[in-house]
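Write out the 3D structure for:
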Amino acid sequence: MKRPALVIAILVVLLGGALWWLRKGDGVNEPGKEDLLVHCAAGLRKPMSKIAGQYEEEFGVKVNLQFGGSGALASQLEVAGGDLYLPADQSYIDSAREKGLMKEAIPVARLTAGLVVPKGNPKGLQELSDLGQEGLKISLAEKSASVGKFTWKVLEMEGLLDKVTPNVVVTKPTVNAIVEDVATGAVDVSLAWDAVAGNFAEVEWIAVPEFSKRAKRASIGVLTSCKDATRALHFARFVTARDRGRKIFSDLGFVVPDEGDAWSEVPEVTLFSGSMLRPAIQGRIREFEAREGCRVNTVFEGCGTLVAQMEAGANPAGYFACDTKFLTMVQDRFFAGQVMTGNEIVLLVRKGNPLELRGLADLGREGVKLGICDGEKSALGELTQIMLERRGLTGILEGRVSVKVAKGDDLVSAMQARSLDAALIYRSNALASPVTLEEHEIVELNDDLAFAEQPFAVGKETPYPELMKRLGEFLTDGKARGRFEELGFQWRLER
């Protein structure tokens, strides 16, 4: 009796283990767990359906596309959630961001509205004002659709609304529906996007200046409700990559942005940055890498040293300079920079200021050991040199400079080693470590020359310009701003 009981017990244990393993496996492969939900403007159905199919085939991730008017989809974001949102008009992206529903957004295509008429244009319509002709039958999109919101607004702005409205015999919720009305002969004309009209052989599209000068941009944004931001960004990058989704959009007649990233599962870029920015941005860069699924190689040095490396052939994907002067030196390699922050030069002295150093002139006293940065190697050094020259202090301080280094960080180290009595550094150098102000204190210079502004710029030759733009935004968003201000930087960025 003991042996059968033992066998049964072993079988029960094995069966229980097998059931546990199956349940565990089901959890990993649970249907829909790896799905992406994308709210997409109906006018982008054809390219996005192809892109989603290609993505699913390449990566095994199901992409669920929910099509509708951009406005109707926008109203569902707070209720339905989802991973990504692709409206046909940038204003919906801006609105979603203002409501806190979206973070990153990447440009996808440019859309231009125009007249959609039957092949051969039997009514001879050429201008927007022609829509006021008596007896004309017009189909327009509802204002919940991006093209509807746009076209109704332009008609009003151009003073044509009262003349055109009597001819509007039907309104539809999507741009595809109003083009179909023309294709089937139900109406004489509609107002729709150029690329959407191009999908219907039975119609032709006519450009009119009132719309052409107001082209719209479609962008895909990552929703804050997304289950996995890295995965959502992976798909967004796929949609907008030059050799993936962007090519499909272009092949289908859409106008795509001039700039666009190459495709890579794990993009790798190099960022050159002034060393004074390291405490403010290094941790944030690591967060960006985790979110984007990319790698950012950082080179922190004095900006003079960085410029010399670029002139010798280095070609970084981005440059966060200590001062605008050092971006100007290599501006031909970068798109226009944007000033993000400002940083002030201060005097660092020992705690209690035993030598009573109150300003620049006091640094010329006998016996004062002063540290400054090298003007050829750093922005701090050049600004210090300019300030001393314009204040007529270069000769007075001759012989007082005990240390000349490449970075403000090195001056702080020399102060901590008690090799110096005073050092001209950035405020952020002094605030980067709480230990510094335990033994030292800051003397304000209150000099309008003692100031630097830090611009961020994207390299012209990088294969990942959009990724670098997002890095710039990530390094200077609300969370990052708090860290900059903790370190004594002044905020300069205007979104």
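The chain has four domains: 36-110+216-251, 113-212, 268-341+456-491, 343-451.
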